[in-house]
């Protein structure tokens, strides 16, 4: 704790010009008093992005890695540390032991969704600064407790909504909130991402000739989940707060996204980014009415979450015209799709997250025109003739903002405040509850309870398995 206080009090002036002498050896910064030691929890997929991005930052060291799958460590250390002439990090398979390490200043939580809030709360209680991947919570109760913890303890807590750091998204929100598009009455979030079948497999280890193939980016990997492989996996720790179930490869690496116990479907996976943008641009917090329909189409496999889902949220808008409300539409589509986003007049977009198979982004509708937005650009089309209007772009560095916020002890510099992240995640959970119950729901944003619907209220939280319990009192 004393070391963190020193960072906070000495680093404010180092954001622009470093006044602390440093020694540069290879790619490593040594001996600087304002160095931030970061630990990454979860190193299989996105965890590697976190490692690489922190290593690019001046005077930041990835000092520890934590993962329940010890099979991953050797390759990760070679690829990200020893091959770069960097000091090998300390290794942990139990995050609780990591949190006891007083030399760790900050952690990135890059676990499966069912661990996000609990891991972040434990880290906050241990005095660590926290960047928690999206969605920051697996249900609404967890998100409420995470926000409480962030407010109670003197640490920086950053939500994984990376677009909050992008000049593109910031200028988008400024434009929409300025009234230049007229009365913005509706937003759409699009998550049309090509997803193949996950198949169905029996519980237990795989036979030696059975392989589980998966793809990360453009690289293909094959991982055998044999008895020998699983002997190096702390599966009890992986299950954490969830019920004790036997190992199944569809309830493990990546495919957990499509199981309600661990994931939140694609609206809570890729879609959480576009949900955050839609809510931000529309200028709303929590809805009064939610309706969601969909299903699991085309495939007969082990997926329990929908692969096609249409959700509509209604928000009160006392200052608006007509019916005094705003609408947010969100759609998940897993297979064939058409183009809906536009980057130039008469052209369809083909930018970051928009590809031959994917269409990821947002649309905003105002009384004077509409806006099309992808991750790295937005453009307005004005009037009935949809003439090309204002535009914006620019990508930021979410990881750098987290480190800036730590050094300056200023939560605002982190850009993605955890409370804003929670509100966006709450929409995802409300939509999924409506889908799972098969009916339209009315919600009270003040009490954060459903109106006259105790069955729906039970789905705001879940039962926790000891000792992995999200605390009622943080």
From TrEMBL:
Stretches assigned to the Gfo/Idh/MocA-like oxidoreductase bacterial type C-terminal domain: 230-283, 398-468
UniProt-recorded name of the protein: Gfo/Idh/MocA family oxidoreductase
Domain Gfo/Idh/MocA-like oxidoreductase N-terminal: 36-158
InterPro entries with a match to the protein in the record: Gfo/Idh/MocA-like_OxRdtase_N (IPR000683), Gfo/Idh/MocA_oxidrdct_glycsds (IPR050463), Gfo/Idh/MocA_OxRdtase_bact_C (IPR043906), NAD(P)-bd_dom_sf (IPR036291)
Origin species: Maribellus comscasis
GO molecular function: nucleotide binding
């Amino acid at each position: 704790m004393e070391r963190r206080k020193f960072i906070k009090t000495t680093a404010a002036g180092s954001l622009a010009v470093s006044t602390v002498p440093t020694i540069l050896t290879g790619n490593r910064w040594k001996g600087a008093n304002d160095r931030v030691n970061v630990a990454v929890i979860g190193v299989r997929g996105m965890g590697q992005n976190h490692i690489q991005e922190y290593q690019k930052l001046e005077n930041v060291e990835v000092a520890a890695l934590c993962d329940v799958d010890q099979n991953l460590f050797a390759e990760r250390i070679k690829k990200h540390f020893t091959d770069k002439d960097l000091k090998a990090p300390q290794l942990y398979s139990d995050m609780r032991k990591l949190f006891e390490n007083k030399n760790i200043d900050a952690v990135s939580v890059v676990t499966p969704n069912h661990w996000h809030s609990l891991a972040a709360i434990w880290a906050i209680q241990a005095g660590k600064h926290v960047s928690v991947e999206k969605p920051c919570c697996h249900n609404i109760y967890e998100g409420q407790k995470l926000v409480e913890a962030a407010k109670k303890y003197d640490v920086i807590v950053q939500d994984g909504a990376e677009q909050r750091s992008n000049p593109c998204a910031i200028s988008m929100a400024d434009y929409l909130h300025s009234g230049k598009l007229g009365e913005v009455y509706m937003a759409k979030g699009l998550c049309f991402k090509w997803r193949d079948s996950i198949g169905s497999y029996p519980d237990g280890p795989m036979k030696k000739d059975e392989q589980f193939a998966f793809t990360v980016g453009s690289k293909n990997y094959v991982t055998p989940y044999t008895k020998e492989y699983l002997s190096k996996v702390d599966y009890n720790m992986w299950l954490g707060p969830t019920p004790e179930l036997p190992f199944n490869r569809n309830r493990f690496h990546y495919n957990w996204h499509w199981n309600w116990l661990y994931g939140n479907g694609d609206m809570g996976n890729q879609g959480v980014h576009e949900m955050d943008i839609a809510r931000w641009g529309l200028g709303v917090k929590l809805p009064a009415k939610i309706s969601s329909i969909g299903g699991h189409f085309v495939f007969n496999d082990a997926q329990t979450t929908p692969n096609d889902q249409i959700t509509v949220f209604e928000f009160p808008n006392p200052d608006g015209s007509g019916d005094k409300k705003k609408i947010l539409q969100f759609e998940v589509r897993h297979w064939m799709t058409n183009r809906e986003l536009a980057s130039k007049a008469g052209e369809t977009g083909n930018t970051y997250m928009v590809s031959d198979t994917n269409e990821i982004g947002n649309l905003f509708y105002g009384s004077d025109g509409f806006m099309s937005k992808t991750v790295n650009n937005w453009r307005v089309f004005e009037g009935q003739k949809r003439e090309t209007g204002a535009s914006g772009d620019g990508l930021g560095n979410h990881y750098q903002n987290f480190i800036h916020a730590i050094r300056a002890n200023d939560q605002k510099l982190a850009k993605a405040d955890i409370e804003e992240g929670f509100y966006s995640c709450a929409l995802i959970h409300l939509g999924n509850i409506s889908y799972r119950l098969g009916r339209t729901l009315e919600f009270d944003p003040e009490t954060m309870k459903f109106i006259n619907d105790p069955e729906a209220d039970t789905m705001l939280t879940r039962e926790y398995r000891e000792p992995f319990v999200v605390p009622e009192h943080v």
